[in-house]
TrEMBL record:
It comes from Pieris macdunnoughi. GO terms for cellular component: mitochondrion. Belongs to the CBP3 family. One of its GO terms (biological process) is mitochondrial respiratory chain complex III assembly. The lineage of its organism: Eukaryota, Metazoa, Ecdysozoa, Arthropoda, Hexapoda. This is Ubiquinol-cytochrome c chaperone domain-containing protein.
Length: 248
């Protein structure tokens, strides 16, 4: 809880900035500065009980803190940089909270796919999933998403706390189902199109095929663009440029 409070304070303070040096997060908060200024042990780092303690206590782990901030800033690049009105107009989607969430959800999934790819190691002809930094950043992105959703629902006109909680629970279930559907379509455009049709248009028979096609093309092109980001740039300074749905 203490760690989350510190991170949230940092994000609120620096949300308006266009660039953050992820590699030097310790300069952002007096809490971290105090930790860095503490006397260093002269015992070898590999054997130091201080190092073991820092690993056990998450909020003192500087690398984890940087990764957590990376996850939060990665999420914020979605609602801040995606042109939602363009999606509403071109794909004939209603300008509602539900539509906003579905569009945000798709962009978040694209981020998750790219980061989870960092945790895949190839051994012979089989792929073995290894939980690493990508998995941790993934969880932080999702955590940031739900924090944002909870805040937005509270701001809706006539919002009721009990109803809002129920809505968040329903969205969570839909989110998990959507991720599974999109994942299944990673290797097959037809399966992906079905997932898009189901999520965006609820399998309506009145859906225009070109709208589903546009979204599928957007996904393929955006995934290709994300794959161009070198692994070394994913941790601290990920630069994500969202493509326009207008061009697909």
């Amino acid at each position: 809880m203490f760690r989350n409070r510190i991170v949230n304070q940092v994000i609120r303070q620096y949300r308006g900035q266009k660039y953050v040096d992820y590699a030097r997060v310790t300069i952002l908060s007096p809490y971290y500065a105090k930790i860095i200024k503490k006397p260093q042990s002269t015992i070898a780092a590999e054997e130091s009980y201080v190092k073991k303690f820092m690993k056990a206590v998450g909020w003192m782990d500087k690398e984890r803190t940087r990764l957590k901030l990376t996850g939060y800033f990665l999420y914020e690049c979605v609602p801040e940089r995606v042109c939602y009105q363009e999606w509403f107009d071109i794909l004939e989607l209603p300008d509602t909270f539900a539509s906003w969430f579905i569009i945000t959800e798709l962009h978040v999934w694209l981020i998750l796919v790219r980061y989870m790819a960092e945790d895949v190691t190839v051994a012979g002809e089989k792929k073995k999933m290894v939980k690493g930094d990508g998995h941790f950043v993934r969880n932080c992105v999702i955590e940031a998403l739900w924090a944002d959703v909870a805040n937005r629902i509270k701001l809706l006109e006539g919002a009721n706390i009990v109803v809002a909680r129920k809505q968040v629970t329903e969205l969570s279930e839909q989110f998990q189902a959507a991720l599974v559907g999109y994942d299944e379509g990673l290797e097959d455009d037809k399966v992906l199109a079905s997932a898009v049709w189901r999520r965006f248009y609820s399998l309506s028979v009145d859906t225009k095929a070109e709208h589903v096609e546009k979204i599928v093309h957007f996904i393929r092109h955006q995934m290709s663009a994300l794959d161009q980001i070198p692994s070394k740039d994913l941790k601290w300074q990920p630069q994500i440029t969202w493509l326009s749905i207008h061009d697909h």
